[in-house]
Amino acid sequence: MKNLSLFQIIVFCLMVGIVCLLLFDSLLQLFSFASIPGGSRNISFSRNFLFLFVAAVIVCFAVGLYKKVNISTELNYQQLFNGSPLPMYVMTKNTLKFLAVNDAMAKLYGFTEAEFLNMTAFDIRPEAERERVKDFLEEFGELTNESGRWLHQKKNGDVFFVQINFHYVPSIAKGAYLVMITDIDKSINDEKKIDDLLHLYETVNKATNDVIWDYNLVNDELTWMQGYFETYGYTKESSSNSFWAMQKIHPDDRERVQEQFKSVLKDKRKDWLSEYRYTCADGSVKYVRDRGYVIFDQGEPVRMIGALQDIDQQKRFEQQLLSQNEQLKEIAWIHSHQLRRPLSNILGLIELIRAAAVEDCELREIIDLLAVSSKELDDAVILINREAMEGRGSAQ
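The structure assignment produced for this chain is given below.
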């Protein structure tokens, strides 16, 4: 019965009344009051009186029931309004004066209910926003239920962003709006910080080889920032592929990178770093260093911002240095062996000269000095040979 209108209630009561009249008429016929003198007139009078009585009872009952239903409905709406976690208020259509506010509204803005009832919707907005409110309501007031983002102002002067949903209520005198507020200030500020960081990265990117990427894990959408298409040769049309397939990563590195990325998300780590080979549009391969930072929402990873750095020249230079180092070690090893052979011969000849009977003292001193110098040179060659051998062993 709670959702029945007054008309439906009256129709229901009339049907009940008609059934009662038919039953009473059947009882009169049953007892044959028409055979009594004046009985027909008494029956007609009784019928008319009963009809009026039943009709009066029906109307009174219907009105009372309708009021009871209305009061119950109003109480339910009042409870929903006051108990809503979302800030809500009712304001007049023409003057935008507050007619009612809920507890969440008072808590968010810092005003009491009594203060709100002496204010208008303009008083919770910065001066610059008030004219915009008038223009919006004049143009869309009864055509839409959403009005987008707005700046509101608390009692202490703090300004913050809100999302507004409202409904026009024509049943209230001269019309009114039921308005629901969603505080989106934190989301807006987070978006602004991210945009600022991306702008900063793009600025830095002009002086570096970094390419910024933004991956939305929820929607599985990868966005490349400025520099990607120029650096790696792809067009926007040719760059669309599954993020998780990682098709542009070199086949020999692909599985390793996929496992690293899955591990970051599974362990809910904040960042990741990986180096691998990346295939360009022309088929050439570049070495890259990929860094990423994970953004969480309620403990779950929802977004990752990263930078892909071209380190191809650095890597190839390192490989060139390693190759040259190996060549130098090889040369040192060969030279040490080649030097050791004639040096050993010299040391042997010195021992033969020493063994001979040399009478000249000066010549003997010269031979001794030659022996010492040869021994020092031999020790140096042995050291070079040892280090060259160790280098070859570690390289293998």
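Interim note for the steering committee: The longest strand covers residues 285-297. Strands lie at 88-92, 98-101, 146-153, 159-169, 176-183, 210-216, 221-224, 271-279, 285-297, 300-310.
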